[in-house]
Amino acid sequence: MEYRLFYAPGSAAMGVRVMLEEIGAPYELIQTTIDMDKPRPPEQLAINPNGWVPVLTWGDDADNERANNECAMYECAAITVFLCDRHAEANLAPGFDEPERGLYLQTLVYFSNSVQNAFQLNYYPDRFADTPADEPSAQRRGIRRLRETWSVIDDQIGDNEWVLGDRFSAVDIYLFMLTTWLNPARGHPTTDEFPNVRRIADAVMSRPSVQLVYADWIAEQTETKS
Ligand SMILES: N[C@@H](CCC(=O)N[C@@H](CS)C(=O)NCC(=O)O)C(=O)O
Q1: Which residue among 17, 32, 34, 121 is best mutated to probe the pocket of ligand 1, counting the most ligand atoms within 8 A of its Cβ?
Q2: In 3D, which of 53, 49, 18 has the Cα closest to residue 33?
Q3: Helix H or strand E encompassing 28
């Protein structure tokens, strides 16, 4: 098995799994949890003391995989860059000297640093508020921040077919993953407010890799609409 991915449904590990499917690399899922009340496997915590997923491990030597040479990393955007560079033949990212490289890196970091941060404000307000009484304020600010950051991305995309223009990339997969966290029941905006984001998310959803990894989420959406 080339990769092992610490995994929980609904988490950022799903986007990494889609990338592994697109690459066609063999991988094993290690089921863990994002439930704050449940413990994480010690092996996961040894790699990522934050307790978050995704966490990716791989052998650095095919003949000696998982013996003494296992490598590991966390942070979804970093894993994305790592996998795309390591599997350049999958054509999921512009190469170092291609003109879209800057926008690719910029958008990944913006997703990770700004859009995900807005989600965190709403989903994990205790990390931002000093007292429980302050948490609703952090959550409301998170919702506003979601609108602000998704609007920036929507404007950036404009009439482009994909985030990077006319080439599909891992950034489109990342975008799709983030849209699945928008939850109107929590007061979040929906992608109806961001038509360019919506157009790309819909196109990504039709890919076989996404249909496989997000089968349950897609079924839930279909049920909610009917
Ligand atoms: N910056 C990290 C954030 C990862 C993250 O927030 N993961 C969430 C699931 S999407 C998680 O593990 N939550 C459980 C927790 O925070 O304990 C990344 O992009 O990989």
Answers
A1: 34
A2: 53
A3: strand 27-31
User: 31 pLDDT band (50/70/90 cuts)?
Assistant: very high
CATH number for the domain formed by residue range(s) 101-225: 1.20.1050.10
Q: Where in the chain is the domain with CATH 1.20.1050.10?
A: 101-225
Contacts of 11 (CB under 8 A, 6+ apart): 34, 53, 54
Pairing of strands 27-31, 3-7: parallel
* Torsional class of 199: left (φ above 0), alpha (ψ -120 to 50), beta (otherwise): alpha
Percent of the chain with pLDDT over 70: 96
Query: Which part of the chain is CATH 3.40.30.10?
Result: 3-90
CATH fit for domain 3-90, picks 3.30.450.20, 3.50.50.60, 3.40.30.10, 3.30.565.10: 3.40.30.10
pTM score:
0.94
pLDDT, position 23: 97
Q: 54-68, 115-129, 167-181: which has the minimum mean pLDDT?
A: 54-68
> Measured in angstroms, how far is the CA atom of residue 12 from the centroid of ligand 1?
7
